[in-house]
Specification:
elongated, alpha+beta, disordered N terminus, five-stranded mixed sheet, OB fold (Dihydrolipoamide Acetyltransferase, E2P), 5 helices, 2 domains
């Protein structure tokens, strides 16, 4: 009879051992749950910070409207009313239309002269006056930034070009008229007004770009 009791006790001990092991593992599992939750929350916060950083970078470097040129801007003239910045961006002088680079005009005696080249030379001299500043106002169909530019002694380079007869006023097309400056140039027979010329828009229509 004694042996049977001992056997029963041993059996009971073996049966309770797995149960005791399960009880010792439960607190560890319960401790892991908050850790996983914290890791998930931290991951979401990091992802949100990365997204916000990406948005800020896009706004900073992919903005449609660039910052105005400063006094030390690296910029050159392409023709009589177009500029190119050091970063390769093209700009169009606001409110005017100058003869195209390959365009010729007529002197009063009927002789041809390279009015397009002359307009580019004049614009080059104007932007070299110092402290060139251009404020972007719009973008044209070619992707160029349309800008109002000034330099030392020249509050509006576009108006100066019209007044000297190297460009015409776009007037109603832009809502920014240089009608008085154009009238002054025409009456004084300055630049293109000293003879006859084809309006730049008409010349471009007769001589479409090949690129």
């Amino acid at each position: 009879m004694a042996r049977r009791k001992s056997s029963t006790r041993a059996s009971s001990a073996r049966k309770t051992t797995p149960t005791s092991r399960k009880r010792t593992q439960s607190p560890a599992k319960r401790a892991q749950a908050p850790t996983k939750t914290l890791a998930n929350q931290l991951g979401k916060v990091i992802a949100l910070v990365l997204v916000l950083g990406l948005v800020l970078l896009i706004q900073r470097y992919c903005s449609v409207t660039p910052e105005p040129f400063g006094p030390d801007a690296n910029i050159v003239s392409i023709d009589g009313d177009s500029l190119r910045a050091g970063d390769g961006a093209d700009y169009r002088i606001f409110g005017i239309d100058a003869p195209e680079l390959k365009q010729s005009c007529k002197e009063a005696n009927g002789d041809d002269w390279l009015c397009g080249r002359a307009a580019k030379v004049r614009l080059t001299k104007l932007i070299k006056a110092g402290n060139l500043t251009c404020a972007v106002k719009d973008t044209d169909r070619y992707g160029r930034h349309v800008a109002l530019c000034s330099a030392d002694g020249l509050p509006d380079i576009g108006e100066t070009l019209v007044r000297e007869g190297y460009a015409i006023d776009l007037g109603g097309k832009t809502g920014y008229a240089y009608a008085n400056a154009e009238r002054e140039a025409r009456e004084a027979k300055r630049g293109i007004w000293r003879g006859t010329f084809q309006r730049p828009s008409a010349w471009r229509q007769d001589n479409p770009r090949s690129d």
